[in-house]
Amino acid sequence: MPTRFEDPIEVPTVVLDGLETVRESGETNLQDAKKVQAIATRLGYPEVVVWIEEHSLAYQEGIFRGFVPAEHPQPRNPKRKF
Fold first, then answer.
1. Which residues lie across from 68 on neighbouring strands?
2. Burial of 22 (0-12, 13-18, 19+ CB in 10 A)
3. pTM (2 decimals)?
4. For 35-62, how does the pLDDT look when each residue is reduced to its tens digit (9 = 90+)?
């Protein structure tokens, strides 16, 4: 199995959708983060811009390892006693 798929970066589904839309547009490759952010904004994915800004290292890693949708754990019950 290629290393690219062994440990992909988890991202929110809306971010994954935005990254795929930018990639499919063919306007840039994902290595140009600033251009990806500009295109994502224009295409209606502001969440991509924020995610890249807040997770720049994970974004760079994801370019080579791949991205997958993050699975969210069930919320904790705050009234539960341990």
1. 10
2. buried
3. 0.79
4. 999 999 999 999 999 999 999 999 999 9
